[in-house]
Amino acid sequence: xxxxxxxxxxxxxxxxxxxxxxxxxSFSIRIxxxxxxxxxxxxxxxxxxxxxxxxEDRKYKDITDKLERAFKYRHWVAHGRYWxxxxxxxxxxxxxxxxxxxxxxxxxxxxxxKIRKVNDSNIY
Length: 124
Known about the structure:
This protein is an all-alpha fold. It has helices at residues 2-21, 26-34, 46-56, 61-79, 85-88, 97-119. The longest helix has 23 residues, at 97-119.
């Protein structure tokens, strides 16, 4: 659960930074225009951030889909008594720690270069 939460924190921080700095790259513009009614970027849904990454490049689609399913599974583990994960999940995916580690590490290595470019650019 911590690995998924860490990935969520990285993506949220990156999105907030891009939003506030009004960067001109295509992903930053997509984040700003994804949901223009949001006055506070901190309230943007994680699924909205993932869909922005998914639409950024076709090579991100498969891994963002896997990450989103793993995130839903994490949510079910944390709040399972409120809804039935296996009836709402068409693939009935069960994850173990190895699966979660593989998904999160694959995601971070796939998009890691794009995140580092923003965070390493002397803007703090």
